Amino acid sequence: MLGTIRAFWNDQRGVAMILVAIMLPVLVGFALLAIDMSRANGLHNDLQKGVDALALAAAAELDGRTDSTERATRAATTLLTNKTKFSTSGNHTLTPADVTITYLSGIPASDNIGLTAAGVDANGVSWVAPDSKSALFAEVTVNASGIANGAGAFEAIFPASFLGGDSTFEIRPQAVAGFNQSICETVPIFMCNPFETSDPLTSKTIQQAFASGDTYSREFRMLKVDSNPGPGNFGLIDNNLSSLRDAIAMGTSGTCYSRDVLTTKTGVTLGQVNAGLNTRFDLYSGSLNKNNKDWAYRPASNVRKGQKTGCSKYDPVTDNSALPLPPGDGYGVKPGMSLPIGSQGFWGNYWQINHGSAYPNVPSATNPTGAKTAPASRYDVYKYEIANGLVGDKSLAPTKETGTPSCYKGDAPTADPDRRLLNMAIVNCIANQAKLNGHVQLRPDGYASVFINTPVQKQDNTKDDEDASAAEKPISLEIVDVDGGFANNTLVDKAFRNEAQLYR
To answer: What are the structural domain ranges in the chain?
Structure first.
């Protein structure tokens, strides 16, 4: 009997079955954990791609306008119409209720400092933007399952409940994207917003004024920013070219400007500004006469300006035998600008003297309101002359001026791109008064495409254009387009670079 018991005790046959029976739950558990980890990783990647796309879509609308966050939320939620299955818990789709979108004015310098869905970092600092114009970043976070439908709620296969745990847990990825907008084809000049007032109830952005038609057919006159800057002033911006004159003549600052930050410039003779602008009218003052064959310094294809001869400075005739685009009326009603052109009769004298016929009631083709029956703007008349082959018409004797350039000796200039159009920053000078006369950063209100009506003349016209001893007369221009949602999009299409990028 004892031998039988001893033999049974020493018998190892079937021991593998015992070990397998013991280890099988462990092996199955590890297999389930591996499957769950793979599923969780796949869900996290899918959700991360989703919130990345939402953050980028929202950030692309953060252009500093008063409605930017409203447009950003609308753009992001539009993507959520896609019924993508993200998990095995909840409603299985990512909906607007599943995410929190927070707009930030900045982000922590270190990626190691996390942000909550409410935009508060680990140090308790809130980065939430106080308004739409201050919003620079869009933060998108997947909500906890208890808040909404549980798009990130993950239900594991591993039976953690048998071990006293929870088989459902949260995957809550987050993405932060920002918006960068820059303009590269612009002169290093800013114009004070002519529609800014000290009263927020009456002040308008340049985009609002453009959309309502307040800019159309008005002549705007600009002088250099003084000790009391405001509507009717202009100033200078830092550029990467050694000569401000050449930057304005060529129409480039040698760099791209951020949509959000400009640095003001001082200490430049304004004769350089005028000499640069006047090349577009076939006038080459001082040392610029050596550039009258250079394509970069070419004039516009229509340079009619009421001048008989001369290639170095603006000296209009006074006998009414030739006329430039006529000035506006009603200065003083609003600072720095005329009243809109009131009737078709405004153009009768100009047309009769320069074209020898009755004015044909040129359509108001660029009116931002869409109304085509209003009197044409100066830019509309100028474009009509080009489109209808009237540039070569001679004005009355003895001047007999045409709009065809004669001082420029290079290849014939083309009508497109138009050399009498400039892209220019618009700044709220009243609000930024303390920042305008030094090398200080400020944020522009927007950008405008402006049409230069006439060359710039000296108060004492016996002086050379670059001579600082004679004061300059104002720069005369019209606004033909602006950036933003109210625009005709000619400026944005040609000059702006927009980029949304992920930061976290």
So the answer is: 23-181, 184-498
